[in-house]
Amino acid sequence: MSVFSLSLVSAEAIQGTIQDHFPIFAGEGQFTFLPKTNFLTSAVNTNGVLDTVVSPGGAKKRIAKTVYQPRVREADVSTSVSFNCTSSNEAGQLSTTCEIDETAGVFIDEKIDRVALADIDMPNELYIARRIMALQDALHRKLETGLGTKLAAAFGKYPDNDTSITGGTLKTVSTLQTSSDNTSLDAIEELEYTRRLTGLPRMYTFGDNLLTKYVTRLDSGCCADGYGVDLATFAGRNGFVHFHDNRVSNDLDAGNFFILFPGAAHIVSFNRFDGPNRIEDNSYKQMVVPSPLFPGLAFDVTMKEDCGDLYIEMGLAYELCTAPTDYFAIDDRLDGFNGILEGKVSNS
């Protein structure tokens, strides 16, 4: 195109162009698979496990409030059946808050000068949509990095009767047999034992190097262990799913990995340009553009045309809200368990 004009571009046209051209853009290798963001925004994780209410907060804060009721203790159950229309056991409920700072999250801006705009040979909406998708990709990756840091600060405890744990918070497993390069049963067995102790149907691991190589061997149909157990078949019958995560070493020690249970953590975000705060005129626009990759995520966007130059800003204020560690009573065997755990592979 020889002439660019922001007045010829509408928010609806940009969003529609992003949806139409996302498969092409993604097929060009412009997007990176981001396992934690993918899981946290998936229906597996967000399907009504936690009741989260977002309300206005003071100053630059927004507050996400989670209301929950701890599991009733077995100790509160009597073996004597007596109906007296009284009780000293208060039902009640607990709550935890998660503050979203409107000035903290991920943000990027870009200037496109008039010379570059004059040389672009494509429709206005398509060009802007492609620039927004490129900026979104960078924001997605930065978000993924930030999620790892937040998860690493939220680890809970393993169930009290779990094994191979240190201080209740770190579980060590082996992927190789002692003094051997042969594949071991231990990691599958211990991870599945953890899952069964929680009583939950599925858990997800996020790691690299040793754990990824281990799962890759099992997926290929590899190996019987020293007892003659077909490890690939054994792994396929158990309830954990592994994601390779090349950012895990940013936040955890070498060999360590995340374990997440569905519903334990949620990305809660705030869009300042949604609804009545949207502006669209000939030289300036502010709007919300949904992520084409991750359901529920949308970015605030401003576009300004000034003396022929185009300025684009994109950002998202967010927080990772995690399940509380007092979800279970103090004398419950799951006391301290919040669905976010740390594991470690050690073959020494």
Describe the structure.
The protein has 348 residues and is an alpha+beta fold. It folds into two domains: 6-70 and 96-153 and 266-322, no CATH class; 165-261 and 332-345. 26% of the residues lie in helices and 27% in strands. It has helices at residues 11-27, 35-40, 43-46, 114-118, 124-152, 186-198, 209-219, 231-236, and strands at 52-56, 61-68, 94-101, 105-112, 165-166, 170-173, 203-207, 240-244, 256-260, 265-270, 279-280, 284-290, 298-306, 309-322, 340-345. The strands form three sheets. Strands 4, 10, 11, 12, 13 and 14 form a six-stranded antiparallel beta sheet that branches. It has a six-stranded mixed beta sheet with strand order 5-6-15-9-7-8, covered by helices on one side. Strand 5 (165-166) and strand 6 form a beta hairpin. Helix 1 (11-27) crosses helix 5. The chain starts with 10 loop residues before the first helix and ends with a strand.
Q: Which percent range fits the helix content?
A: 25-40%
Radius of gyration: 25 Å
User: Could you tell me the number of beta strands?
Assistant: 15
Shape, please?
Answer: flat
Q: Which segments are poorly predicted (pLDDT under 50) over 5 or more consecutive residues?
A: 49-53
What percentage of the residues does DSSP assign to strands (E)? 25-35%
Oligomer: single chain
* Ends apart, CA distance between termini: 63 Å
Q: Topology as H/E string?
A: HHHEEEEHHEEHEHHEEEEEEEE
Number of domains: 2
| Mean pLDDT figure | 81
- Structural class given helices, strands, pairing? alpha+beta
Query: Counting H and I runs of at least 4 residues, what is the number of helices?
Result: 8
**Largest sheet composition:** 6 strands, antiparallel
